[in-house]
Write a structure and sequence with these properties.
By secondary structure, the chain is mainly beta. It has three helices and 19 strands. The strands form three sheets. It has an eight-stranded antiparallel β-barrel with strand order 12-13-14-15-16-17-18-19. Strands 1, 3, 4, 5, 6 and 11 form a six-stranded antiparallel β-sheet that branches. The radius of gyration is 21 Å and the shape is elongated.
Length: about 280
């Protein structure tokens, strides 16, 4: 299997380092809405070039798939060539993919990136694996260099990001106030709990002073609800993160100088861990 470590690609399309910001905003409910449009049996490179991208920073087309097991997947894809001894071989690169469970829309069954498909091979989004023909694939890369849906799977292509709400133009600036106020906790935070649970918090401060939000895990892109309130001081928050089989009780303190970081402790299953979160710059 040495060839797996010496692959040279000339890709037709690439993904920006910032593509994840837009790509991750399409969650399971958005994918279900996308699948209300007429399905595509196959998508060629020429067809994909006519599609609007998710954002100016994303140069790759995005497909949405309802798998044969009833799960919902999204993927950025690119066409390319793998150098060979005689001539280049066409390949499809699944640059990023996330599969949300059909029975629990906030949880995922698979996620990954940089998966290569050769002509005649398929991809099973339910397990996140390349599979031979006839072995449960949801899409296949054909000899004609097209992406084709397989069996009971349904595929559509996103034409821009119209499914998403418009970005707010009036971004809040925490530096506008010298003192800490409730709104300073709002926004996206890159969080690391004890080096074990890593991901991103997206926090909102409600009109009645409560905190709500979502924790998106780095490992599988699962989404977990966050609810809570402010603690004994203006820079203290106390929230709970509702994981699939446990709850994190978070007691954190916002740094009062530049308001860019939160640190504190997390209690889970009667054990206490440290955590650190850094504000994600817009």
């Amino acid at each position: 299997m040495q060839w797996m470590f010496s692959i040279a690609l000339v890709l037709v399309t690439t993904t920006s380092l910032f593509a994840a910001d837009v790509f991750d905003r399409h969650i399971s409910k958005d994918l279900k809405r996308a699948l209300e449009q007429p399905p595509l049996k196959e998508l060629s490179l020429n067809d994909s070039a006519k599609l609007k991208r998710l954002a100016p920073t994303v140069s790759s087309p995005c497909i949405v798939v309802k798998t044969d097991e009833g799960n919902y997947a999204k993927s950025l894809i690119g066409w390319g060539l793998r150098k060979g001894a005689d001539k280049p071989t066409p390949v499809l690169l699944i640059e990023r993919f996330v599969t949300y469970r059909g029975d629990r829309s906030d949880l995922t069954s698979a996620a990954g990136k940089d998966v290569m498909l050769f002509p005649g091979f398929g991809f099973n989004f339910d397990i996140g694996q390349v599979v031979p023909a006839g072995q449960g694939a949801d899409i296949e890369f054909t000899a004609e260099q097209a992406v084709k849906s397989v069996g009971d799977a349904v595929m559509v292509a996103l034409n821009g990001s119209a499914l998403l709400p418009a970005e707010k133009s009036d971004k809040y600036d925490p530096a506008a106030n010298e003192a800490v106020v409730a709104q300073d906790f709002a926004g996206a935070w890159k969080v690391d709990v004890d080096g074990r649970w890593k991901g991103e918090w997206d926090l909102t401060v409600t009109d009645n002073g409560k905190i709500t939000g979502v924790f998106v895990s780095d490992e599988l892109q699962n989404r977990y609800d966050i609810t809570g309130q402010f603690g004994s001081s203006p820079n203290n928050l106390r929230v709970e993160v509702f994981l699939a089989n446990a709850q994190m009780q978070v007691d954190g303190y916002l740094w009062t100088k530049d308001k860019s970081q939160i640190a504190g402790t997390v209690m889970m299953t009667n054990r206490k861990f440290g955590f650190h979160a850094v504000r994600v710059k817009e």
